[in-house]
């Protein structure tokens, strides 16, 4: 044990002397801090936008009160009044932005057909979206393995190539103790960095101190340990530093770039999702065709859905709002199957990726962190569902005015339902990801230990 | 009695070459055994077998009565080793390197003691605090000598330790070996230097193609006779 600590302390001196590594480690620390800043400012921007929305809705109501100083037809209000379905982030979102940058975090809703409004989002620069988020999760999942590789590629081969190993092993020092001390120092360094960055990010994001703190730390620590296990396996092989570097970068490319790419292609092919275009066209055809269809046909189809309004007055006018909203409603009905096929397809893809993500600990870690932060696809789909229910509630609010011909007064604005949705963490997915990560790490570690035992360290 | 250093039918077969064919050798405390032989004769293989860096095909090597292959860690308490080309951590000073290796050997010396060992090994005082990266081969060799001496081992395994040393330093090294042998240290030295073998050795052995073909006490030969003997066996 004493020998271990002597070697451990010596590693610190070796590390300090390697200026390139010190520079690289400081750079990763800075990049990590930038990742925290990036994630926090992105979520703060979203929060700020979300906070401004009620004021916008109020402003819209003020305008309508001016436009309709007296009682108004609820159809006019439903047409001109905009309200918002909002998706609030969890405090963890700034650590792992997930899909919050590409998926809309609020939807502007009117009483019109829902499907045309649900997917409208702010414009995103596609080039920027392609490169992805530079949040802390990105730094930990994609860049930390490279730091670990840079620290470990010559773990034992440096001493061997320098010829120092003969003199080291001529002391009462076993090769196992030497490798253990060298690895332990690097693990301590990297995990120190991980803990500092995670701690800063958590404090900055003011996450509540619950089990998720432990879950996040367990995930990122285990993910780093996986890469150390890979480095140990390669070290046990006892090849040259150059070979080790190529092998480790190769593993990184396979697990971080190649497998995710192939998995994406495979999942897209295995779980086809209907094109959004088809849905849009069908809904438009239905709604625009509504103008030309006989009103009784439209209304009868609508009454099949809302039998409680069947006894309302027959439409004789050329235009009446309740007829207009009826064919808007039927537009949504006509694409309901397509819409659910679309979300089901997305969900199936997500589930297939989750089933296969043991192939790449990088995807596994990313999925788990996003699940923990509530920024993954299920969180977005839950928001869409909530927005759909909200739109239903809006219809439920306006239809009695329309069909019972009740005038809409200024007091009625306050009765309109409002919406709020906050995504929740999905600890089940994160925990199962942790389990898979544990298995991957364990398997690689055992392989490394077996190889290390099978090949006695040759100091020459 | 147990010998400090012993080989029993020690044999090493490499896939392409029989490096050592049944070596039998006993070395007592205070002896200086010099092993002569051409490159590839098996001298380094023998030393590597004693160090446990190489596993014997059959037979066994013993250090202080302990079988090397079965006690790979414990035997290293008893031996010190100076390779032909001492390599050290280049970013550490000579002093720091000596401190590191001594601590690994189980000795925690004060700085003044470390300096004394380096000075004793012939390292110039001004070099002690310089990074080893700036050292010449001879200076590294001297740090290697200091590391070996500071270990106070019962056996000294030397693989052409004076290569890279100038004649004066070589001479000082011979003197050091005589001192250590006087204190009871057994020395096993592979060398090409017949003159030095005669000068410091108590016995010389000649190795040819993995076989120890002759062993003689140095007192019975002068340097010329030893050279003739060597040439006789290697031609």
Describe the model.
The complex is a heterodimer of chains A (460) and B (235). Chain A has 460 residues and is mainly α. Chain A has one domain (2-282, 322-454). Chain A is built from 18 helices and three strands. A three-stranded mixed beta sheet of chain A has the order 2-1-3, sandwiched between helices. In chain A, helix 1 (2-17) packs across helix 9 (175-205) and helix 11 (241-270) packs antiparallel against helix 15 (336-356). The mean pLDDT of chain A is 93. With 235 residues, chain B is of the alpha/beta class. Chain B has a domain at 5-85 and 154-234: P-loop containing nucleotide triphosphate hydrolases (Rossmann fold, 3-Layer(aba) Sandwich), CATH 3.40.50.300. Chain B has helices at 43-51, 75-78, 94-105, 111-120, 137-150, 167-182, 194-200, 223-234; strands at 5-14, 17-27, 32-37, 58-63, 66-67, 79-82, 155-159, 186-190, 203-208, 211-217. In chain B, the strands form two sheets. Chain B has a six-stranded mixed beta sheet with strand order 6-7-8-3-9-10, with helices on both faces. The longest helix of chain B has 16 residues, at 167-182. The mean pLDDT of chain B is 93. The A-B interface holds A 3, 6-7, 10, 13-14, 17-18, 162-164, 166-174, 456, 458-460 and B 48, 51, 53, 55, 72-74, 76-77, 79-81, 83, 85-92, 96, 100-101, 103-106, 144, 147.
